[in-house]
Amino acid sequence: MKSYSSLPGVQGIKKHKASVMKKLLSTAAITSIALLYACNPQEKASSTKAIASPVVNAPVEQTSALVTVKVRAINKNGQNIAQEQDQKFAPYAYSESSGFVYPKKGPNAEGFVELTLKPGTYVFDCYNGSSSGLSPQRFEVKPHQENLVTLKYGEE
Q: What is the greatest pairwise CA distance in the chain?
């Protein structure tokens, strides 16, 4: 019985297989050298910054702490409208970035309504019909300080 390895076609396959293995080994060697060169620890880090995308280097917006703002309304006599029995005081704040912000609770015992807002510029007004004579007010809400807004009745 003849061995398959002695057939002429099998010898060609063996040579081809050896040739492919040599090519694979040389490709692996070249790839390894390229990887080692690319991961050179002595390369300066500043060159990485030069090619980095501007989006990667863009400043990250820090989360602003929320600020409590006290809002009150006074009538022509300087009295808190929220403390008067016949008046209902329902303020809101508006900014282009936050939209409309409404209070979660009504006035406290001192007549203030509290809103929790991000720092920024807001317009404060009242949405209750009985307090519609209050004049809107633009106010800059700032962190780390008392933020008190007074809406006045009958002033423009």
A: 122
Give the H or E element holding residue 44. none
Q: In terms of domains, do 12 and 71 share one?
A: no
Specify if 62 maps to a domain: no
Per DSSP, the three-state class of 52 is: coil
Residue 142 has pLDDT above 80, yes or no: yes
10-51 pLDDT, tens digit each: 666 777 677 777 777 777 777 767 666 666 555 554 444 444
| Domain extent at residue 12 | 4-57
CA–CA separation, 149 vs 73, rounded Å?
8
Give the torsion through C-alpha atoms of 22, 23, 28, 33, to 10 deg: 100
What does the alpha-carbon distance between residue 1 and residue 43 come to, in Å, rounded to a whole number?
64
- State how far the Cα of 115 lies from the Cα of 101, in Å rounded to an integer: 8
The tokens for 96 are 């282009």
80 & 147 share domain: yes
Q: Are residues 140 and 106 both part of a single domain?
A: yes
pLDDT digit string, tens, across residues 55-103:
444 444 445 689 999 998 888 888 777 656 555 678 899 999 989 999 9
